[in-house]
Design brief:
Organism (chain B): Candidatus Glassbacteria bacterium RIFCSPLOWO2_12_FULL_58_11
Radius of gyration of chain B: 28 Å
CATH class of the largest domain in chain A: Alpha Beta
Largest sheet of chain B: 7 strands, mixed
Strand order of the largest sheet of chain A: 4-5-8-6-7
Low-confidence stretches of chain B: none
Number of helices of chain B: 18
Largest sheet of chain A: 5 strands, antiparallel
Bound molecules: flavin-adenine dinucleotide, iron/sulfur cluster
GO molecular function (chain B): iron ion binding; oxidoreductase activity
Strand content of chain A: 15-25%
Domain Aldehyde oxidase/xanthine dehydrogenase a/b hammerhead (chain B): 27-114
Number of helices of chain A: 12
Radius of gyration of chain A: 19 Å
Protein name (chain B): Aldehyde oxidase/xanthine dehydrogenase a/b hammerhead domain-containing protein
CATH topology of the largest domain in chain B: Aldehyde Oxidoreductase, domain 4
Number of domains of chain A: 3
Largest interface: A-B, 32 and 34 residues
Number of domains of chain B: 3
Keywords (chain B): Molybdenum, Oxidoreductase
CATH architecture of the largest domain in chain A: 2-Layer Sandwich
CATH class of the largest domain in chain B: Alpha Beta
Oligomer: heterodimer
C-alpha cells in the first residue's frame, strides 16, 4: 500500500468539497472492505482517503411515506437483520445477508456495496494495465474469463459484483447523489453504466460525488420479492449468477400483474431481464410459465471462451427467484 | 524390544485429550513467528519477477540503497527468472510500507523470453525450451504392446481421462522468519516443519557450525509439506539481518504463498483397465503427465491399492516443466492423485463387469485391513440402501449418491529422536524434544505420553518443543512425527522413572525394581502399603534435578496404514452444485495416542480433500504467464458450507504401536466424492475441480439429467 493522507469529513458538504479538490486525488472511505484491498494491491493509490464514517446521520434506517430510506453508511448486517425490512422487502434482507461473510457485513456499508469496484482478476492485479485502468487491452478476452460477463460487455467484460444492486433495482429504488453543486435523485436503472459508455467507472458518479442515501418505494399491496444468489463455493463467494425478483400479484396471489427482474453476475451492470418481465406479466405463475419466461432472458447473451455455463445458470437462478418470490412450491 | 504399557494402565494415551496449547492459541498467548517483535527490528521484503521467463539484463539497486529507511539491499544475482514470482532482489527497511516503497525504487531491465504455463503448451511440438534439460522427462514401465494385448483379451475394458489440478498449500500462516545475529551466532524464529533441519540448512548456507545457529518455532500455522527447507525467504531474512546488523522479520504475503513456496503437482492421466469375467483386474494401462512447475517433478505411484497381475501394467509418464513455482511435498505426495485415478477407473470397471463397486473392491483389494474397513464403512454409510443400483436413478433435481475411495500410507518412526526428562525436587517434570507442532498436536502427545509412562497427572508435566536447544528430533514429514517422538518420550520417561525409583527405594525399604508409579503414587508392587506420593518421592532428590536424555527405541512404532472413505453427496443438476452431505472415514494408524487429535486430523484431511476436489484451482493465464488468482478470494478453499457431517471410525490396532496419521486420510477423499457424484447423477466427472461449470458441462454432454 502506498502512503496516503487521511481526512475525517465533518459533514457532507465538507466531504464533497475535499473530494472535489483535485490537487490531491481523494477517494471516499466507508467500511473500507473493498478499497483497502485495492490499495494493498497497489493499482489504486489515492493521495488521500476521505472518511465518511465521521459524518453523523448517514447510518440511519427509516420508514416513511416515500418508503424505506437507507443512509449510505448503513451496514449490510443492519439491513439483513432489520425486522421490518425482512417483512416488507425480504429480497433486500436476503441480498444484504448474501454478501461475503459476517465480518464483511459487520463493516461493509450499503454505499460502499453499490460503489465497490469490479472483481475481475486482471483488474485486481497491478501487473495488468487493462482498459478499466485506462490501459490499452482487456486481458480477459484472450485470457481467463470464467467469471466474466455474458452480456453487455465490450470493450471491458466485468460483471458488477454488488449483491444489493440487482435487488434494489428490481425494487425500483433510487439513489440520492450529493455533489459540490447540490444533490439529485437517480433511479437505479440509470445509476449504473456499461463499458461502452465509460469503461473506467461502473456508475454515473463523477469524481467527488457521493451516494448519501437509497430510497425504496413503499411496498404496494400484492408485492412479493426475493433475492437468490448462486455461489461457486457455498461459503463466502461472489455471485456466479444472482437474481432479484420483485412481483406484483393479484388478490388471489396467483397471477403476475407486474414483474421486475434483475440479474447479477452476468453483466457489467445489474441486468434487467426485460424479455422475461414481459412474458411473465399477466400470466398465472406456475412452473411452466416461469420456465417460458426465463428462457427469454439473456437471449442476446454473447458468452466468452470460458463462461457459456452462466447463461443457463442465470436462467435457473432467475426461475427459482421468481417461484420463491411468488411462493410457488415446486 | 520395548512395549507400550498396557492400555488399561494409561489415563491419557488412547483417550480424548484436549490440546495442551489450546488455551494459549485461542487467547493469543501463543506467539507465532509473525508475532515476534525485537528491538530495532527491520522488515524484509522480496522483489519478484513480474514475468514468467526473462533474462535479467540489468538491475539497479541504487534507488533503494539511497532510501533513508532502508538498511539492507540484496541482489539475488539471477541471470534468468523462470516464473512469475521468482525472486530478484530484497530489501530490509524500518517498516513494511517503507520496504515496499523501496522495492519500487529498484529498477530491473528484463529481456523477455518465451514461456509456457500449461502442460499442453510445454509438451506441444515446437514449444519453447524453458530449461536446459528440456521441458519433459519421461518415466516408463512395462510393455505397452503386451498390456494392450491383455486388455484386448479381457472381458471388460474401461477407459478414463482423469485430471487433477495443481493445488497450492495455502497454509494459514505464511512462510517466513525473524532473524537475529549476535556476532557470528544466528538466532532465528521460523515457521518450519523441521527446526533441526533448518539449523543444519542455515549452518551449511552460512558456513558456520551448527551450534552457532538457534532455531525457534514454538507455534506454527500449518506446513503440509511446504515448510521443510529454510527456503529463499529464510535465507534472505538471515542475509538481510546480517547486512543490516539488525534483526529482520520477513513474512511472505498471501500472493507470494501462492506463487513461490510450493504446490502439489498436477496429474493428467489416460487410464485403461481390464477385468476378467469373474471381475478380477487383468491389466492397467497409463499414459500421463503432470507438472511440478519449473522443477517438473510430478510423480504419483501406480498401480495403486489394487492388485494388477505381474507384467500387466504399462506406464508412460511425462514430468513436465512449466514456468511456474516449484512443487514441494504436499500431504501424502502423489497418493491423492493415484487414488483419484484408481478409485474412478475401478468404479467404472465394476459397473462394466456388473458388480457392485463394494464387492468389486473386496474381490480385488489385497489388503486385509481394508477388507475389514470396507465392510465397516459400508455399514455406517448405509451402502445397501443408499447406493443407487442404477446411477442417477434417484429423485430429480437434487440427486443423491454414495461412493467409495481408498488409500494407504507409510508413516513410522525415525531412530534419531532424543528426549530429555527433568524431574525437579518439587515434583514438576519437564519433557523436552526438538520436534515441532505443525498443528497436528504433538506437543499434547508428548505431554500425555510422559504423564502416562511416569504414572502421574498431566498437570505435573510441562512439554517443551520447537527449539534446537532441545534434543534432536526429525522433521515432520511422511507422518513420522508421532512414531519418532512418542517412543523416545516413552523410553526417556522409563529411564527417568527407573532412576527416581533407585533414589527412593531405600526410603521404602524395597528394591528399585519392585516399584511402580500410578496416579501419582509410587508403591511397592508386592506391598501397596509401602508407598510415597510423587511429590514426597521427588523431594528425596534433595535439591538435585534428575536429568535424563534418552532416545527412540524399537518396538513401539511400526509403519504402513490403510484406510477407506465413503462419501454421500447431493448434486443440484440444474446449478451444478455438488454438496457433500456425509463422509465416513475408516482409518487405521496403530495405537491412537490421542483419539481427539486423531479425529481432528481426519476431519481436517477430509475438508482439505473436498476443497481440492471441488473448488481449488491455480488458474494460469497462458497469455501473460501469470497466476491470475494468487489470493484466497478466487483461489477457493472450502469453507464451513462445504463441510459435511464427518464420521470417523478409528480402526484401532494398539498392538502395532504408533504409526502416524497426518497424511493418509487426505488420500481417499476426492475419489470417494467423484464416485458419489457419478452414483448420484449417472454422469462421470473425472476432472477437478468439480465446479459448477464443469458439472453443468458434463451433465449437458450427457443430455441433461
Ligand atoms: C473477501 C470479500 C468478499 C466479498 N464478497 C462480496 C459479496 O459476496 N457481495 C458483494 O456485494 N460484495 C462483496 N464484497 C465487497 C465489499 O466488501 C462489499 O460490497 C461492501 O459492502 C463494501 O462496502 P464498504 O463500506 O466496505 O466499502 P468501501 O471499501 O469503503 O468502499 C468501496 C468503494 O466505494 C466507494 N464509496 C464508499 N462509500 C461511498 C459513497 N457513499 N458514495 C460514493 N462512493 C463510495 C469507495 O471510495 C470505494 O471505491 C466482498 C469483499 C471482500 C473483500
Ligand atoms: S474485463 Fe475489464 S477489468 Fe477485466 S481485464 Fe478486461 S478491461 Fe480490465
Amino acid at each position: 500500500m502506498k502512503a496516503f493522507s487521511y481526512y475525517n469529513a465533518t459533514d457532507l458538504k465538507d466531504a464533497v468539497m475535499v473530494l472535489g479538490n483535485m490537487e490531491v486525488q481523494s477517494l471516499p472511505l466507508a467500511g473500507g472492505t473493498d478499497i483497502l484491498g485495492e490499495m494493498k494491491n497497489r493499482y489504486v493509490s489515492p493521495g488521500r482517503l476521505v472518511n465518511l464514517k465521521s459524518i453523523p446521520g448517514l447510518d440511519k434506517i427509516s420508514f416513511g411515506r416515500e418508503g424505506l430510506k437507507l443512509g449510505a453508511l448503513v451496514r449490510l448486517h443492519d439491513i439483513a437483520m432489520d425486522k421490518r425490512i425482512q417483512k416488507d422487502y425480504p429480497g433486500l434482507a436476503q441480498a444484504a445477508d448474501s454478501v461475503g461473510s459476517p465480518q464483511l457485513r459487520n463493516v461493509g456499508t450499503l454505499g460502499g456495496n453499490l460503489c465497490q469496484r469490479p472483481r475481475c482478476w486482471y483488474y485486481r492485479g497491478e501487473e495488468y494495465p487493462c482498459i478499466r485502468k485506462s490501459g490499452g487491452i482487456c486481458y480477459a478476452v484472450s485470457g481467463r474469463n470464467k467469471y466474466h460477463c455474458v452480456i453487455g460487455g465490450g470493450p471491458c467484460f466485468i460483471v458488477h459484483p454488488s449483491d444489493t444492486a440487482p435487488m434494489l433495482m428490481a425494487l425500483g429504488a433510487k439513489v440520492t447523489i450529493q455533489g459540490v453543486k447540490g444533490s439529485r435523485d437517480v433511479v437505479m436503472d440509470e445509476f449504473f453504466i456499461l463499458p461502452e459508455e465509460d469503461s473506467t467507472r461502473e456508475n454515473i458518479l463523477l469524481p467527488g460525488e457521493l451516494i448519501t442515501a437509497v430510497t425504496v418505494p413503499a411496498p404496494a399491496k400484492g408485492s412479493r420479492n426475493c433475492y437468490l444468489k448462486f455461489k461457486e463455493r457455498g461459503s463466502r463467494d461472489f455471485a456466479l449468477a444472482s437474481a432479484g425478483a420483485s412481483l406484483l400479484v393479484d388478490e388471489a396471489g396467483t397471477t403476475c400483474l407486474k414483474a421486475s427482474l434483475v440479474l447479477g453476475g452476468v453483466a457489467p451492470a445489474p441486468h434487467r431481464a426485460k424479455e422475461a418481465e414481459a412474458l411473465l406479466t399477466g400470466k398465472k405463475i406456475d412452473l411452466q410459465a416461469v420456465e417460458q419466461a426465463v428462457k427469454a432472458a439473456l437471449a442476446d447473451a454473447a458468452p466468452m471462451t470460458e463462461n457459456e455455463y452462466k447463461v443457463g445458470l442465470a436462467r435457473t437462478i432467475l426461475k427459482r427467484a421468481i417461484l420463491r418470490a411468488a411462493g410457488v412450491e415446486v | 524390544m520395548a512395549q507400550w504399557k498396557p492400555l488399561e494402565k494409561m489415563r491419557y494415551v488412547a483417550h480424548d485429550v484436549p490440546r495442551t496449547d489450546g488455551p494459549a492459541k485461542v487467547t493469543g498467548a501463543a506467539k507465532y513467528t509473525a508475532d515476534i517483535v525485537l528491538p530495532g527490528m527491520l522488515y524484509g521484503m522480496i522483489l519478484r519477477s513480474p514475468h514468467a521467463h526473462a533474462y535479467v539484463k540489468n538491475i539497479d539497486l541504487s534507488g533503494a540503497e539511497k532510501h533513508p529507511a532502508v538498511k539492507a539491499v540484496l541482489d539475488m544475482n539471477k541471470y534468468t527468472v523462470r516464473y512469475y514470482g521468482d525472486e530478484v532482489a530484497a530489501v530490509a527497511a524500518t517498516s513494511p510500507e517503507l520496504a515496499e516503497e523501496a522495492l519500487d525504487l529498484i529498477k530491473v531491465q528484463y529481456e523477455l523470453l518465451p514461456f509456457v504455463v500449461t502442460e499442453e503448451a510445454a509438451m506441444a511440438p515446437g514449444a519453447p525450451r524453458i530449461a536446459e534439460e528440456g521441458n519433459v522427462s519421461w518415466e516408463r514401465a512395462g510393455d505397452k504392446a503386451k498390456v494392450e494385448q491383455i486388455l484386448a483379451g479381457s472381458s471388460h475394458v474401461v477407459e478414463a481421462d482423469i485430471r487433477c489440478q495443481v493445488q497450492v498449500h495455502a497454509c494459514l500462516e505464511s512462510h517466513g522468519a525473524v532473524a537475529q545475529w549476535e556476532g557470528d551466532k544466528l538466532k532465528i524464529w521460523i515457521s518450519t516443519q523441521g527446526v533441526h533441519g533448518c539449523r543444519e540448512d542455515f549452518a551449511t548456507y552460512f558456513e558456520i557450525d551448527q551450534d552457532k545457529v538457534e532455531v525457534i518455532c514454538d507455534y506454527m500455522g500449518g506446513g503440509f509439506g511446504s515448510k521443510f527447507p529454510v527456503g529463499v525467504e529464510g535465507q534472505v531474512a538471515a542475509r538481510l539481518a546480517k547486512i543490516a546488523g539488525l534483526p529482520v522479520k520477513l513474512m511472505l504475503s498471501r500472493k507470494e504463498e501462492c506463487l513461490a513456496v510450493g504446490n502439489r503437482p498436477s496429474a493428467n492421466m489416460k487410464l485403461k483397465m481390464g477385468g476378467d469375467s469373474q471381475g478380477k483386474i487383468t491389466a492397467l494401462w497409463q499414459e500421463s503427465n503432470g507438472t511440478g512447475g519449473i522443477s517438473g517433478n510430478a510423480g504419483f505411484p501406480m498401480p495403486y491399492i489394487f492388485a494388477v497381475p505381474e507384467g500387466a501394467y504399462y506406464k508412460k509418464h511425462a514430468h513436465v516443466r512449466i514456468n511456474a513455482g516449484t512443487e514441494r511435498p504436499f500431504r501424502a505426495p502423489g497418493h491423492p492423485m493415484s487414488a483419484f485415478g484408481t478409485d474412478i477407473i475401478v468404479d467404472m470397471l465394476a459397473e462394466k463387469a456388473g458388480i457392485d463397486p463394494l464387492r468389486f473392491r473386496l474381490l480385488n483389494d489385497p489388503d486385509q485391513s481394508r477388507q475389514k474397513q470396507y465392510k465397516i464403512g459400508a455399514e455406517r454409510i448405509g451402502w445397501e440402501t443408499r447406493w443407487n443400483k442404477v446411477p442417477g436413478s434417484g429423485s430429480t433435481g437434487k440427486k443423491r449418491g454414495v461412493g467409495i475411495g481408498a488409500g494407504r500410507w507409510g508413516g513410522g518412526g525415525a531412530r534419531s529422536t532424543k528426549v530429555q526428562v527433568e524431574i525437579f525436587p518439587e515434583g514438576k517434570v519437564v519433557v523436552s524434544t526438538g520436534t515441532q507442532d505443525l498443528g497436528t498436536g504433538i506437543r499434547t502427545l508428548v505431554h500425555q505420553v510422559a504423564a502416562d509412562i511416569l504414572g502421574i497427572p498431566m498437570s505435573y508435566v510441562t512439554p517443551q518443543i520447537g527449539r534446537t536447544i532441545y534434543p534432536f528430533s526429525t522433521g515432520s514429514g511422511g507422518s513420522i512425527t508421532t512414531g519418532s517422538v512418542t517412543p523416545a518420550v516413552n523410553n526417556a520417561c522409563n529411564t527417568a522413572l527407573t532412576r527416581l525409583f533407585e533414589k527412593v527405594a531405600p526410603a521404602l525399604g524395597v528394591d528399585a525394581g519392585d516399584l511402580a508409579c500410578e496416579d501419582g503414587v509410587i508403591y511397592a508392587i508386592a506391598d501397596r502399603s509401602k508407598s510415597l506420593k510423587w511429590k514426597e518421592a521427588t523431594a528425596l532428590l534433595q535439591g538435585e534435578v534428575l536429568n535424563i536424555t534418552d532416545g527412540w527405541v524399537e518396538g513401539l512404532s511400526s509403519s504402513g496404514v490403510a484406510g477407506c472413505q465413503f462419501a454421500e453427496v447431493e448434486v443440484d443438476t440444474e446449478t451444478g452444485r455438488i454438496k457433500p452431505l456425509k463422509y465416513v472415514a475408516v482409518q487405521d494408524f496403530g495405537l491412537a495416542v490421542n483419539t481427539l487429535t486423531s479425529r481432528s486430523q481426519i476431519n481436517g484431511a477430509i475438508v482439505m480433500g473436498i476443497s481440492w476436489c471441488l473448488s481449488e484451482d491455480r488458474t494460469m493465464d497462458p497469455k501473460t504467464g501469470t497466476m491470475v488468482n494468487p489470493n484466497l478470494e478466487s483461489y477457493k478453499l472450502s469453507g464451513p458450507m462445504e463441510i459435511p457431517e464427518i464420521e470417523v471410525i478409528i480402526d484401532h490396532m494398539p498392538e502395532r504401536g504408533v504409526i502416524g496419521l497426518g497424511e493418509p486420510p487426505q488420500v481417499p477423499v476426492a475419489g470417494a466424492l467423484a464416485n458419489a457424484v457419478y452414483n448420484a447423477t449417472g454422469v462421470r466427472i473425472t476432472r477437478m475441480p468439480m465446479t459448477a461449470d464443469v458439472v453443468l458441462q458434463a451433465l449437458a454432454k450427457k443430455g441433461g439429467a
